[in-house]
Specification:
The longest helix is centred in the last third of the chain and has 21 residues. Strands 1, 2, 3, 4, 5, 6 and 7 form a 7-stranded mixed sheet that branches. The chain is built from 9 helices and 7 strands; from the N terminus they run E-H-E-H-H-H-E-E-H-H-E-H-E-H-E-H. Helix 1 packs across helix 9. With 203 residues, the protein is an alpha/beta fold.
Length: 203
């Protein structure tokens, strides 16, 4: 069976999306994927970061996580993007990385890959679905193959997030639950299993 290459590429400010990224990667690896987990570059100024101790602490704690590059996209059979919501849309840091892929897009290097996503919000109705739907508009432009968790596993009926794993942190007061981590693991597994069916032999 083909061992698909899965890139988990995310932006996280205070750590929730990072936690989801780790769970997505765990699920992908358990399903047999070769996984790269990559954070995109922080664009916010130090003054903004230092205004929130959790933001500074997380940035310092994950300094050893490699930064994403376009080569990670070219390498992958499947790409799973993670972002906190920003006014119901993708965070600028992840959007900046996506916007840097024009050369790959022009060469047809983004098409025919599997894509999916995950998200964190401050409140229960703070943009979880709209953020993922906005992200998935990009997949259409790539000519990618969108694979979401849907309601294809019992864990999805517990968390109710068919668009992709999502966490609501209650403005920094709620940690990522075990159920949400299981949903993220399932999403990583599902993407891997679909990618394995589609990836060229020997990839």
């Amino acid at each position: 069976m083909t061992q698909p290459k899965v890139a988990v590429i995310y932006y996280s400010s205070t750590g929730n999306v990072h936690t989801l990224a780790e769970s997505v990667a765990e699920g992908a690896e358990a399903a047999g994927a070769r996984v790269r987990i990559r954070r995109v570059r922080e664009l916010a100024p130090d003054a903004a970061i230092d205004s929130n101790p959790a933001w500074r602490a997380h940035l310092d704690a994950t300094a050893d996580v490699p930064e994403a590059t376009p080569e990670d996209i070219r390498w992958a059979d499947a790409v799973i993007f993670g972002t906190p919501t920003r006014y119901g849309n993708v965070a600028a840091q992840l959007k900046q990385f996506i916007d840097s892929l024009g050369g790959e897009w022009a060469k047809g290097q983004l098409q025919d890959k599997v894509y999916s996503g995950f998200v964190s919000t401050g409140t229960a109705h703070g943009g979880r679905e709209s953020t993922l739907l906005a992200l998935y508009n990009t997949v259409h432009h790539f000519g990618g193959i969108l694979v979401t968790p849907g309601y294809t596993d019992p864990i999805q009926y517990e968390v109710g997030t068919p668009y992709g794993p999502s966490h609501t942190d209650g403005q920094g007061t709620i940690p990522v639950s075990e159920e949400t981590k299981k949903s993220a693991q399932f999403a990583g597994r599902r993407v891997t299993e679909v990618a394995a069916k589609l990836a060229p032999a020997g990839s």
